[in-house]
Amino acid sequence: MTDTPKLSVLDLVPVRSGQTSGQAIEASLALAKVADEAGFTRYWVAEHHNIEAVASTSPAIMIALLASATKRIRVGSGGVMLPNHAPLVIAEQFAFLEAAFPGRIDLGIGRAPGTDPVTQWALRSGGAVGPEGDPVARFPEFVQQVVAFMCPDGAGIQIGGRPFHVSATPNAVSESPVWLLGSSDYSARLAARFGLPYVFAHHFSGVGTAEALALYRENYAGEEEPRSLLTVNAVVGDTKEEALLYARAQQHNIAAIRTGAPRLPIFTLEESMLATPRVPDDQFDELMGSWHVGTAEEVAESITALAQQFEVDEVMIQPVGSAKESDPYERVPNRERTVRDLGRLLLG
């Protein structure tokens, strides 16, 4: 591996107080352009539903917008929550994107629903995706189906004992790589078993990373070399104290995640300073132990050390700094600064 890692971006298309979904999308498109110009490798968007703090409900559509707005960076999903969808539909969407933007599309898939149980029910038209059974339990089968359907030659299926051929798109000349996302031993073992590249959600808590990567590498059954990357939360400021202020707005968002409360639009820096924290400072500080917060030089150094510690040559940052009240709704300057400064220091 190289001395400094490649960098990529994970984006949930966050929505802050007073911001519309359209303005949040514009802010993410602006951030993607910064990442593209700074030499980042990929820009991935997540899938979440019925959450006021997140506008990224449809990765495939957002990817089309991102690819059109940028020049060379790879764009993809981080990830599509496969139990919410029919595998062929996802294969068709990403085969279409690959045909439109050849060599620039990644398909990252995950097992979680990305929403609450009621919305999950509505996404599945009141039932499970597929002819039978729990789609979460059938996740390994669905992963195999997506990989098969993504092949340019299509895949054979059997219905009622009769063979049929299904193709995600006609006359494909390339296919998007499929990445498996996860935060547990289960996902690591499954990625290894299927020989897929693996993304560990280190940004969740920073716990279990070494164990998951070891399981993946030791059990990898693919023909190509195993590939893995880590996701991290990052915030850059003029000083560490300033960076911590930008990070503090996430204190309320994290409290909602931990307690099951509604995830309201993300506080601005000023709102977060006035509001009473719903997670005690000591708990938030402990959680932030796995975050990368500080000056650009400090964050670049800590990300490089992380990559070397876990022997990965790529780190995907989620820039989570808040906006100020005075920031335009179509931009989040601190997120852009985090990406730009880290690109300058680590990518040249």
TrEMBL record:
<dbReference type="GO" id="GO:0005829">
    <property type="term" value="C:cytosol"/>
</dbReference>
<comment type="similarity">
    <text>To bacterial alkanal monooxygenase alpha and beta chains.</text>
</comment>
<protein>
    <submittedName>
        <fullName>Limonene 1,2-monooxygenase</fullName>
        <ecNumber>1.14.13.107</ecNumber>
    </submittedName>
</protein>
<dbReference type="InterPro" id="IPR050766">
    <property type="entry name" value="Bact_Lucif_Oxidored"/>
</dbReference>
<keyword id="KW-0560">Oxidoreductase</keyword>
<dbReference type="Pfam" id="PF00296">
    <property type="entry name" value="Bac_luciferase"/>
</dbReference>
<dbReference type="InterPro" id="IPR019949">
    <property type="entry name" value="CmoO-like"/>
</dbReference>
<dbReference type="GO" id="GO:0052601">
    <property type="term" value="F:limonene 1,2-monooxygenase [NAD(P)H) activity"/>
</dbReference>
<dbReference type="InterPro" id="IPR036661">
    <property type="entry name" value="Luciferase-like_sf"/>
</dbReference>
<feature type="domain" description="Luciferase-like">
    <location>
        <begin position="8"/>
        <end position="308"/>
    </location>
</feature>
<dbReference type="InterPro" id="IPR011251">
    <property type="entry name" value="Luciferase-like_dom"/>
</dbReference>
